[in-house]
Amino acid sequence: MDSLSGRSAIVTGGARGIGAAVVRSLTEEDFGVVVADILEREGRELADRLGDAAIFHVLDVTDETQWRQTLRDAEATYGPPAVLINNAGIVDFAGVEAESPAMFRHVVDVNLYGSWLGMHVCAPAIRAAGGGVIVNMSSTAGLIGYAGVGGYVASKWGLRGVTKAAALELGPDNVRVCSVHPGPIHTPMTAVLSESTAAYQPLPRFGEPDEVAAMVRFLVTEATFSTGSEFVCDGGATAGRTLDLADVS
Ligand code: NAP
């Protein structure tokens, strides 16, 4: 951790939701944080509130030129990058038959290609600076299937896979790469979901963005022997299903 602190961190989708919680927690760890998002007003307001500890940068994660500009600004403002959090993501609530081909491609483009592009652009700089940590925000939808969000599920399984490929390639140069798999979390993305969505979980509630940020912070600052692994933060959603003993004859 000592070799990382004081360097820069980039958080995509950092303007709100889980990303904003991660931004706040990394500033508490002495990183200079780039809030990188297409959502300008919220992103700038967050960075302004954090003072010298954060700047906002417009970044569409599917745009390589913008990625290179974001990295240059991060380096110029806070020094070599130590941390990349590929958190930006979108969902399209539509089943396999209903989802339009264009939306399927768009979801995969943002969630999977955008995260891969972040690693493609930033990993050489993190490696050259002596190492660091990359966290890819997958989902429980990268561990199991969900009806009604096929593009999202495809993108999150893909992100889990490319996390392992990157971990294998970058580990020898002291760059750790892990995926985080939240269950339902209270953010604008899930505002359309009923609270009853979480009723079957062992912890029968939605999580909060700070609970995911705490796991990301642990991965960045403490988990020095972890790479290529999945870190689940889902209230037990993927633990299994409870057998109702009333159904046992
Ligand atoms: P959110 O509140 O919708 O925040 C996502 C942020 O990413 C928004 O500011 C969004 O901007 C931005 N974004 C969208 N497309 C982008 C692009 N092309 N380039 C850069 N930024 C872009 O979502 P969240 O719930 O915090 O989710 C954060 C991550 O956690 C996502 O990867 C999501 O899949 C994952 N996750 C969330 C949950 C959950 O229950 N909330 C569960 C599992 C995994 P716009 O608003 O302008 O689109």
Features:
single chain, 249 residues, alpha/beta, Rossmann fold, seven-stranded parallel beta sheet, 16% strand, globular, binds NADP nicotinamide-adenine-dinucleotide phosphate, SDR_fam, Sc_DH/Rdtase_CS, SDR family oxidoreductase
Describe the fold and architecture:
The chain has 249 residues and is of the alpha/beta class. It has one domain (8-233): NAD(P)-binding Rossmann-like Domain (Rossmann fold, 3-Layer(aba) Sandwich). Helix content is 40%, strand content 16%. The chain has helices at residues 17-28, 40-49, 64-78, 101-128, 150-170, 209-221; strands at 8-12, 32-37, 54-58, 81-86, 132-137, 175-182, 230-233. The protein has a seven-stranded parallel sheet with strand order 3-2-1-4-5-6-7, with helices on both faces. The N and C termini lie far apart (56 Å). The chain binds NADP nicotinamide-adenine-dinucleotide phosphate (NAP). It comes from Nocardia speluncae. This is SDR family oxidoreductase. Pfam families: adh_short_C2.
Radius of gyration: 18 Å
Integer tally of domains: 1
Can you tell me the residue ranges where pLDDT is under 50 for at least 5 consecutive residues? none
Overall CATH class: Alpha Beta
Distance between the termini: 56 Å
Task: Write the CATH fold name.
Answer: Rossmann fold
Please count the beta strands (DSSP E, at least 2 residues each).
7
Provide the list of bound ligands, each named once.
NADP nicotinamide-adenine-dinucleotide phosphate
Could you give the order of the helices and strands? EHEHEHEHEHEHE
Specify the structural class: alpha/beta
Name given to the CATH homologous superfamily = NAD(P)-binding Rossmann-like Domain
- Provide a count of the helices: 6
Helix content class: 25-40%
Share of β-strand residues: 15-25%
Mean pLDDT: 97
Shape: globular
Order of strands, main sheet, comes to: 3-2-1-4-5-6-7
Query: Judging by the overall fold, what is the CATH architecture?
Result: 3-Layer(aba) Sandwich
Largest sheet: 7 strands, parallel
